[in-house]
Amino acid sequence: MKRLLLIPLLLLITGCSLFITTVPVIIQFDSSCNYEELITNEIRLEIENDDFTIIGTDLTQEQLKEIQTNECVIRTAHPSQIQTIISEIQEELDESRDEKIRELKLQRSLERQDVLDKDQLQDELERLHPEGDWPGGIIAPYQFYVTPDTDAIQDLAQSLDGIEEIYQESLDWIWISEEVLNGVEELWLYPEEFLTETPNYPTNPTGMVASDCEDQANALASTLIAEGYDPTEVRVVLGLVNFEGQIGGHAWVEIYEDGKWFAIDPTMGDYYDEDINKLINAPSVPYYYFKYHNYPSLEIWYYYNNEYFLDIATMGGNAPPSWRFSARSWLEDDLSNFKNRIVRQQNI
After folding, report:
1. Is 327 a domain residue?
2. Quick one: which H or E segment has residue 13?
3. Cα(220)–Cα(153) distance, rounded to whole angstroms?
4. Domain range enclosing 234
5. Exposure winner among 28, 69, 159, 248, fewest CB in 10 A?
6. Pairing mode, if any, of strands 174-175 and 210-211?
7. Whole-angstrom Cα distance, residue 48 to residue 35?
8. Mean pLDDT for each consecutive 10-residue tract of the chain (348 residues)?
9. Which residues neighbour 86 within 8 Å (Cβ) at sequence distance 6 or greater?
10. Is 90 among the domain residues?
11. How far is CA 157 from CA 154, 172, 175, 207, 268, in A?
12. CATH number of the structural domain spanning residue 217
């Protein structure tokens, strides 16, 4: 009889741990803090950004209370609250992006009309490259300016390792307007000339590799493809952007990763301030900056590289299906996917 009484007693003792339950939570940390010192449980979601780090994990109520009092924590949320915090965080990210644009004076490129309007640009490039002269595989004149097989691009790609190094290299290219560098409203340079000849232009006050947005974007895309990126996953973008209320044509690059696109813009680096005639060394921006900050594009005209082209207005071209999707912040997708995983696990 005594042995039988021991069974429920043992179950009571060993089962105490069952009442120490954990709950899934989202924790937003200030980027200056080391969250790894605070989170010892399994990390099930990790979003890193200049402004913050978001962690998805499981905590007990006691652990959650302790975390919430830490000065490194910006906010915590249960998965059911994710839709609410997405809009709050994205608003903060947009404000941070606008501050970065203001800090880098990106509106300089639009004030100097880096890219002509869509119709003028099309006319100019078709004048330079009549359609009858296009080699096989080229279906739009913009494609002539992505040249991964040229010597200068090959040399650059071989000297760098991966997107992070390539992007940091591109931020050292000096933005300068067509008016100052070439004395004309619009002149597209091939990447070879941009990299090897512009430092010696008598009109270049910096003595460094320099030009405006489309030349930098074309050279960056060329280098990424030369380094090994699949051409289906790298594209130059032409369209309208809004930099601090200044709207105009611009060129940048987008990368396809984990089923989503994000922007990288080499003009966010060093530039020649033509108002004070001075070279400005800009603070570094990581290549992943626009994974979670919305790039301030208003209208897309074309996507292209040396192999593919897509006209957004007509959806005409030879680009793969993934090119029909635009770049946007990954925040909602990543947090919603975490929430959906939790719901599925709870329903098992």
Report:
1. yes
2. helix 2-14
3. 9
4. 106-332
5. 69
6. parallel
7. 11
8. 34 42 91 86 89 91 91 92 91 94 95 92 95 89 98 98 97 97 95 98 98 98 98 98 95 97 98 96 94 97 98 97 96 91 72
9. 331, 332, 335, 336
10. no
11. 5, 15, 21, 22, 20
12. 3.10.620
Question: In what helix (H) or strand (E) does residue 316 lie, and over which residues does it extend?
Answer: strand 316-317
- Cα separations (Å) of 132 from 118, 138, 226? 22, 11, 28
Distance CA 145, CA 306 (A): 7
Report the candidate in 160, 142, 303 with the shortest Cα–Cα distance to residue 223: 160
Task: Tell me what pLDDT residue 340 has.
Answer: 87
Cβ contacts of 231 within 8 Å, gap of 6 or more: 225, 305, 306, 307, 308
First-residue to last-residue Cα distance in the chain: 39
Amino acid at 310: L
Any domain includes 81:
no
Which residues are CB-neighbours of 78 under 8 A, at least 6 positions away?
A: 23, 24, 25, 26
Rounded to whole angstroms, how far apart are CA atoms 293 and 51? 10
Q: Is residue 96 part of a domain?
A: no
Distance CA 329, CA 291 (A): 6
